[in-house]
């Protein structure tokens, strides 16, 4: 039976391939989960950075989308997507001016975790005769952005409620520390803690006569457990459309569920147990796990070659250590699941959508490099 490698023989390497049919299956599976538990699904598009995929997510039932940067928001707005959370603080005159401009075009909300940002957003909204919906970002263990649950949260919520041009829409978190988990039990513990902490925060606010409509959690490895906690109303996974070696290592996806692959060619075989491929760090990036973890072996999963490991990357070369009986030779093409799909997407100008057999279509990564 012919496979991706044989069907893609007319595509020059290195090439990033998106298995469209598997990607749609991933979208539907997550949407079915959200529907089962009565959750809004607001996928994070920083994973794929392509309006064509975001539109598929919306077509299949997503409430709206999540973005990290204003540049991503603008790309998605230009594609006709009108319901977006910017899950990133808007700080500085230039950013606030841009945010207000984009917010006039669509339903655009953002996050706050301090009074400084709240004040500046409120001033800009007042100047433009508009109301901005905001979510308080809560730190549930990542120790990055967010207020701590308890008194700090309550104080900020009361402050925002006193601002005329801000509407407190909900509370939001991202349990990104799950990527530091070393086993499935720890993943499950973080996921359930994320959900229970957020519901406890909502209940605390309610007791203070502050009601929020949305309780939003994120991260692909945690949503299918955290989302089952009664009181959670929204999930914001991103990577689930693509999946990668890190998700496989965390038990959040199987190899078959990884829709993103890199096709590469062996360009040298200096020794019997070392080969070199034409893809390096400019294709794969240098991720070997996140937030202190190392759950992957090498820089990707080399399919059909269990005794081969992509051990080293320079900018344009990848070095594979393999057993002498691996039968990998110069000119061979290899199919590799990257460690972190999101960074691979951001490094490539276009992705080849594979629709089965020899049907491929190059798609520009429109929001690539939109880091402002």
Structure description:
This protein is an alpha/beta fold. It is 32% helix and 23% strand. It has 2 domains: 126 residues, Lyase, Ornithine Decarboxylase, Chain A, domain 1 (Beta Barrel); 221 residues, TIM Barrel (Alpha-Beta Barrel), CATH 3.20.20. The chain is built from 12 helices and 17 strands. The strands form 2 sheets. Strands 1, 10, 11, 12, 13, 14, 15, 16 and 17 form a 9-stranded mixed sheet that branches. Strands 2-9-8-7-6-5-4-3 form an 8-stranded parallel sheet. α4 packs parallel to α5. The longest helix is centred in the middle third of the chain and has 24 residues. The mean pLDDT is 96.
Brief write-up:
Helices cover 32% and strands 23% of the residues.
């Amino acid at each position: 039976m012919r496979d991706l490698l044989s069907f893609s023989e007319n595509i020059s390497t290195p090439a990033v391939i998106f298995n469209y049919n598997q990607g749609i299956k991933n979208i539907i599976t997550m949407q079915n989960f959200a529907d089962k538990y009565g959750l809004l699904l607001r996928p994070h598009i920083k994973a794929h950075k392509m309006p064509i995929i975001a539109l598929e997510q919306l077509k299949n039932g997503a409430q709206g989308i999540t973005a990290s940067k204003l540049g991503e928001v603008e790309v998605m707005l230009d594609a006709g997507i009108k319901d977006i959370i910017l899950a990133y603080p808007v700080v500085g005159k230039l950013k606030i001016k841009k945010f207000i401009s984009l917010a006039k075009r669509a339903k655009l909300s953002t996050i706050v975790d301090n009074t400084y940002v709240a004040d500046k957003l409120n001033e800009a909204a007042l100047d433009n005769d508009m109301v901005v919906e905001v979510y308080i970002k809560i730190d549930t263990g990542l120790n990055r952005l967010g207020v701590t649950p308890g008194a700090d949260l309550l104080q900020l919520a009361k402050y925002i409620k006193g601002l005329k041009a801000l509407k407190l829409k909900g509370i939001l978190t991202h349990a990104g520390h799950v990527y530091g988990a070393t086993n499935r039990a720890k993943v499950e513990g973080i996921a359930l803690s994320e959900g229970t902490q957020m519901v406890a925060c909502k209940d605390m606010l309610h007791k203070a006569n502050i009601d929020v409509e949305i309780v939003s959690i994120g991260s692909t490895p945690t949503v299918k457990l955290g989302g089952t906690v009664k009181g959670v109303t929204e999930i914001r996974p991103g990577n689930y459309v693509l999946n990668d070696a890190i998700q496989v290592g965390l038990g959040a996806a199987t190899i078959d569920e990884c829709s993103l692959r890199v096709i590469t060619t062996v360009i040298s075989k200096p020794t019997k147990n070392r080969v070199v491929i034409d893809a390096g760090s400019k294709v794969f990036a240098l991720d070997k796990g996140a937030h202190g973890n190392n759950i992957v072996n090498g820089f990707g999963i080399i399919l059909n070659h269990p005794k081969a490991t992509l051990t080293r990357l320079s900018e344009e070369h990848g070095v594979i250590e393999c057993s002498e009986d691996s039968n990998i030779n110069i000119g061979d093409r290899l199919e590799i699941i990257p460690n972190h799909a999101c960074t691979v997407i951001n490094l490539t100008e276009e992705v080849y959508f594979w629709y089965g057999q020899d049907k491929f279509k190059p798609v520009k990564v429109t929001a690539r490099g939109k880091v402002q």
